């Protein structure tokens, strides 16, 4: 098998955009221990490659798979070690498909390497990485003689292992140790001319390293594998992914684990440029979902190198699943709810014509909302403005992070913890509450915007925009401006992260 891995670098002349086609797979992995660990890995790898072939037929250049997508999260049922793979160092660019001898700890990675080369498709896969160590030689080597990492790897279009990222921010994952490699190990440049950062295995998205750090270093395309547990009102999967991508202006390709009983679902391709539609799925009954969409990267702002490659396989405009949305069945959904009782909150009163309300909290955070709310007897419920600056706990109190939030949220009563309780509710078709703008004076630079309806669909990017205006070194005004008819809103949120103030 001959595969050219030579990058033809050319100066960026004229065009400053590269267009490529991304794919993500949402899937509930095979998890039965009946035939052992290797059978779990091989069955999931088979499902990966079957869908990778479909994605390639639709022109995909790169495809992302979910966190734990190869192993499932059912790690208690058998010997975790039998699920672990030994990952070569990316600097060695090993093509595992060429190896004649494989152990059960390289076999599945080898099968994926052969699949990537055969399909000529970049594969981004999350797996359990096995690293042997010697308790005599390394001080913190466990007695069992190995470490396990939650690791994302990239197999290029020739099957070579070209990048590896070991998850740094584990979320209640006993048995794993956090990665400590430089953020640069998560960066790779493709033969279609786009530089990506791996990153964001799930909970990482709440932190700076490695994704945000690499984005601030100029990378504009991010591949995320996740098993995200939904939390209302601010952190449901597509809402959070859209917010992160829009807040930073980067393309985010996210593949999520599908397990609705645990509140895990929602994947997509979220473009960084303003007013480009996301392609995402958030379907309770979805099971396995493949999304393919084309994305554009601005090479003059980024880290990107231009390369030449014949492009016969590009999707036509409009052929992709742009804005693909499935309405979730709220009756069956499972959510964690953030405790809002420490938030400052203000009930928004009815107003026949446009009014502005304001609310402040700690650290100089002040939020404004402009709206009209003529009132309507056929509509139940209330809207509140929420303001909060301070620490919040995640993972049942194990993690503590500093946030700043300005949000307008739908609530069942005038009690703040009745906000964003949608389970079992029938979303209305219309609402007399019309939002014009939510703005906030933030102390952090990192503010992420989201606009979500009561049926948990995202409001189209054509109907709102986001601005972030620095006022001084430590203050910025950020604004969500709604420009069209959105339908009944659940949560319109500016979510700031103040990483330096986290409790560690
Ligand atoms: C694998 O086996 C083939 C055929 O026996 C041989 O030509 C090739 O050199 C071997 N590759 C490696 C890496 O040992
Ligand atoms: C790309 O970025 C440059 C520099 O910020 C900007 O001038 C240009 O308009 C951008 N092009 C596109 C197509 O967005
Ligand atoms: C009241 O709400 C219903 C639907 O819930 C809508 O059809 C009607 O136009 C609304 N009336 C006013 C005055 O907003
Ligand atoms: C909120 O409104 C007040 C009064 O109009 C204004 O002074 C302030 O700048 C506004 N703040 C934001 C964040 O828009």
TrEMBL record:
Residues 20-297 form the CN hydrolase domain. InterPro entries: Biotinidase/VNN, C-N_Hydrolase, C-N_Hydrolase_sf, Vanin_C. GO terms for molecular function: hydrolase activity. The keyword Flavoprotein does not apply. PROSITE patterns: CN_HYDROLASE. Keywords: Hydrolase, Signal. Residues 1-15 form the signal peptide. The keyword Signal applies. Belongs to the carbon-nitrogen hydrolase superfamily. BTD/VNN family. PANTHER family: BIOTINIDASE-RELATED (PTHR10609), CN HYDROLASE DOMAIN-CONTAINING PROTEIN-RELATED (PTHR10609:SF27). This is CN hydrolase domain-containing protein.
């Amino acid at each position: 098998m001959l595969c050219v891995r030579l990058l033809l670098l050319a100066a960026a002349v004229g065009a400053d955009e590269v267009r490529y086609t991304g794919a993500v797979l949402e899937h509930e992995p095979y998890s039965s221990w009946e035939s052992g660990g290797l059978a779990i890995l091989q069955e999931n790898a088979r499902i990966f490659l079957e869908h990778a072939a479909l994605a390639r037929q639709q022109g995909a250049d790169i495809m992302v798979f979910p966190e734990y997508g190869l192993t499932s999260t059912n790690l208690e049922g058998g010997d975790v070690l039998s699920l672990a793979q030994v990952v070569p160092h990316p600097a060695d660019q090993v093509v595992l498909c060429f190896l004649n001898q494989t152990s059960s700890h390289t076999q599945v990675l080898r099968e994926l390497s052969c699949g990537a080369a055969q399909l000529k498709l970049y594969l981004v896969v999350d797996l359990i990485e096995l690293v042997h160590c010697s308790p005599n030689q390394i001080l913190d080597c466990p007695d069992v003689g190995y470490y396990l990492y939650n690791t994302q790897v990239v197999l290029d279009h020739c099957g070579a292992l070209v990048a590896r990222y070991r998850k740094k921010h584990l979320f209640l994952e006993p048995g794993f140790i956090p990665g400590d490699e430089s953020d640069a190990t998560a960066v790779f440049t493709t033969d279609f001319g786009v530089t990506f950062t791996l990153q964001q295995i799930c909970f990482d998205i709440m932190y700076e390293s490695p994704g945000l750090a690499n984005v601030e270093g100029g990378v504009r395309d991010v591949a995320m594998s996740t098993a995200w547990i939904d939390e209302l009102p601010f952190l449901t999967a597509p809402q959070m992914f859209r917010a992160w991508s829009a807040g930073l202006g980067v393309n985010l390709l996210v593949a999520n684990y599908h397990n609705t009983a645990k509140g895990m679902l929602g994947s997509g391709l979220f473009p960084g440029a303003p007013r480009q539609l996301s392609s995402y799925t958030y379907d309770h009954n979805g099971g396995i979902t493949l999304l393919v969409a084309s994305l554009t990267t601005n090479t003059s702002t980024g880290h990107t190198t231009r390369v030449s490659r014949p492009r016969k396989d590009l999707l036509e405009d409009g052929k992709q699943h742009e804005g693909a949305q499935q309405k979730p069945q709220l009756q069956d959904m499972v959510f964690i709810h953030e405790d809002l009782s420490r938030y400052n909150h203000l009930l928004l009163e009815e107003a026949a014509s446009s009014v502005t309300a304001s609310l402040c909290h700690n650290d100089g955070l002040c939020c404004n909302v402009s709206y009209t709310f003529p009132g309507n007897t056929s509509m139940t419920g209330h809207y509140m403005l929420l303001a909060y600056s301070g620490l919040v706990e995640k993972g049942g109190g194990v993690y503590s992070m500093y946030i700043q939030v300005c949000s307008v949220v739908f609530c069942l009563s005038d009690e703040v913890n009745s906000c964003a309780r949608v389970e079992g509710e029938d979303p209305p078709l219309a609402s007399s509450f019309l939002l014009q703008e939510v703005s906030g004076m933030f102390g952090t630079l990192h503010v992420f915007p989201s606009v979500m309806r009561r049926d948990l669909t995202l409001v189209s990017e054509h109907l709102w925009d986001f601005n972030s205006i620095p006022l001084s070194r430590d203050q910025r005004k950020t604004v969500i401006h709604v420009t069209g008819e959105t339908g009944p809103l659940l949560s319109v949120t500016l979510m700031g992260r103040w990483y330096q103030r986290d409790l560690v």
